[in-house]
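pipeline stage [seq->struct] | target=Ribonuclease G | organism=Crassaminicella indica | residues=502
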Amino acid sequence: MNEIIVNSSLSQTRVALLEDKELVELYIERENSKRTVGNIYKGRVTNVLPGMQAAFVDIGCEKNAFLFVKDAIPPEMSGSKEVSIRDVVKNGQEIIVQVIKESIGTKGARVTTHLTLPGRYLVLMPYIDYIGISRRINDEEERDRLRNILEELKPSNMGIIVRTAGEGKTEKELKEDLKFLLKLWQKIDKEKHLGFAPRVIYKDLDLIHRTIRDMFTGNIDKFVINDKEKYNSIIDLVELIAPHLRNRVEFFEMDMDIFDYYRIEKMIYEAIGRKVWLKSGGYIIIDQTEALTVIDVNTGKYVGSIDLEDTVLRTNKEAAIEIAKQLRLRDIGGIIIVDFIDMNNDGAEREVLEVLEKALEKDKTKTNVLGITQLGLLEMTRKKIRGRIGSIMQRKCPYCDGTGNVLSEYTVIQNIEKEVRRIAVHTNAQAVLIEVNPSVEALLKADGNRFVHELEEISNIKIFIEGVDHIHNNHLNVKAMGKIEKIESIIAEKNNDFRKKE
């Protein structure tokens, strides 16, 4: 059973795709950071980079967009062997571009001059004379039927591609979709001549309406949303473009969070974790950088029931299925390296690759499995279009700066010594109160506060150590006092407050 669950709130919209109650895809759109992929802009070239065969284009966003030469070459120059970016664009030139990849991290959006307008069943390419059919439509008779229809419908000097959702559709349905796209293009074509760059000419649909257009097809059994106003809007759109799916749209009326009801919230937090457990007891570890993702497969608690070779093969095959799912769910792109458990024969490796490739067939994003290297590592690539789910839901830790590590207790103790020595040299303090994380206090007490006593002798300062729950592992608070009695009174006052709370 396939379900689309939409959680609409004041700050964001989240769309979850469930397959047999399991979360396989998640899309998030925030009110203050709408997506730009699919948007068309009138931009201005700000810098041509011959060494990189690319140019920067100001499209009115925070960061300038990046235009590669292959995305800038007009159709009449596409046959040329070597085209320089200087032959295609000039500094200061106004140019019509479409975003094909979101701005991620420090990089601006990637844009193209080869515009595409997606409909429900077709994609219109205004500048390219071409006919294409989705690779996911496998039946040769159906491909021939669709190609014949397209040859009749295609406007001159334009291109059309049939999307996967177009499989089995009648000529009338495809014609209506094309009619809508041609009207949209006429509007965009007029708009591009108006106003100065940079400006937006066309904005793609919002997340909910894109979901209806791109995902809500006959293989979706249920579409549920928790917002009544948006539910009514969805009903109007579905009745217009897919009336046969009208009864599959539901309004969630229960007085509880829709993602909690479908257990999606729990699955989301599992999806951003580093370790993913397999049903057998094995697990995979996912480590990500900006351009590279490394996935390590481990047998974990799974010991098998036949022999080691069988255990390894079963774990690797189960991991292959889970890896394909995690790539979709986390929307991991770029270079991916998988370290499967070592297999001793080529037959086992082929089995695992077949399982992985089969599992990847459900993924709409283009993925290439390149094979296993001499080091026994699987190499693959996946097209990167938007930021990973983890990067959308999380931000870099301000304490560890993204390393995933904090200072050890011994390093904090070293910092205590450094601070006390500084106070001894530069002040007339008789005592210091040092607040630390309880783990640091416990380590100091473990050897009878020997470190503290030695530091008191060296510095000639009385030292009071206090463990405080809200102090981070990396931090310490130091209060230097001219008199020991004042610190003792502060500690006594804190102890009294603590007893009152108890």
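stage status: PASS
auto-comment: The two ends are 53 Å apart (CA to CA). The domain at 409-501 is CATH 3.40.1260.20 (Hypothetical Protein Ychn; Chain: A,).
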